Amino acid sequence: MLACALPQRNLSDLEKYSFAEIMVSGNSLLRKVRDEILQKNNWSRQQCSLTKLRSDIFRLNKPDFIHGVYISEELIDSMNKIRDIEYTVMCGYSNLIHKLANKFAMLKCGLTAEDFYNEGIIAIQRAVYAYSKIKNKFSTYAHWVIRRQMICAVNKFKPLSGLSAKATELLVALEQTKRKTNGPLNLEIASENMQLTEGQRRTLNAAMSVVIYESQIPQNDNSYWDTEEKKPARISFDELFKKLDLSDFEEDVLNTFINTCGKRGWKTEVAERWGYSRMAPVQVMKRIRQRASEFENYFKDAA
What is the pLDDT confidence band of residue 184, given thresholds at 50, 70 and 90? Predict the structure, then answer.
């Protein structure tokens, strides 16, 4: 247990929902006011950040003007409500931060679990004051923010300042190639797909040794999973289709995605066959993935 660790608290479903509503309401109002300030003063976002505006509002005891825009009592109350629940929310996600901190410490990059835990605390605070879309669960959003903060901490500890502009361009191109092929690539396959020269290959290899990617985070750490959690058993492909109860279009989308291994052009192929836009298969795949979450291990293997 870390000396600076927050006490752990289990949040009920009712608490999670009410807290999410409070955060969405307050943060959405704050963004609207910030946009009004930027428009009225013809400023850029750097000249009036949400953090600075929030601090100014916390100092107000009654409605007033900030940068020429009226700050209502509703906004002041909403921001105070978020501040009131901030500590409770942080305690509710302390266990998640612990698990991710221990997981990232396995990278042995020079940062300890305590270092990652502190980064997680910073991340959950940012998440509380940035969450503004109720359609996305706060738990999902918080998990993503915490992971990104920890990955950034690793890369800051292994600074990228030594990379040349060319190396940075190659790293960006590599990420784009990974997305197109829908999966990780080793250096040999990536070099072939990107048609790199021998010099570019050596540059990319050196750059890859400096950067830590999310895909490199250990995924098989047993301590990360709750002891009660059981991983789903592998099921047959036909059983998966029956469980998901897919429509004809959804079934065609999933079949095409799996048969082509998600390679470039599969969306166009399905869209042209059904007369839909190319975004339709993408949205369908998202829905299928959500419904197939209980069969996650099988779905990843099949895809």
Answer: low
> Is 48:40 a contact under the CB 8 Å cutoff?
no
Please determine, for residue 63, whether its predicted confidence score (pLDDT) is greater than 90: yes
How far apart, in Å, are the Cα atoms of 264 and each of 177, 181, 253?
Answer: 10, 7, 14
pTM score: 0.55
299, amino acid identity: F
Residue 22's contacts (CB-CB under 8 Å, 6 or more residues apart) are 78, 81, 82, 85
Residues 206 and 167 sit within 8 Å (Cβ to Cβ): yes
Contact in structure between 105 and 224 (CB atoms under 8 Å): no
CA 131, 133, 138, 144 torsion: positive or negative?
Answer: negative
CB 101 within 8 A of CB 116: yes
- Residues 91-102, mean pLDDT to the nearest whole number: 91
Sign, CA dihedral 71-72-76-78, equals negative
Mean pLDDT, residues 148-154 taken together: 82
Q: Show the tokens assigned to 212.
A: 């830590």
Kindly list the domain boundaries of the chain, sorted by start residue. 9-88, 93-158, 165-211, 237-302
Closest CA to 103 of 147, 139, 138: 147
9 pLDDT more than 60:
yes
Amino acid at 153: A
Which range has highest mean pLDDT (211-220, 226-235, 287-296)? 287-296
Residue 40 backbone phi and psi in degrees, to 5: -65, -40
Decide: 262 and 183 in contact? Cβ < 8 Å.
yes
Q: What pLDDT does 168 receive?
A: 65
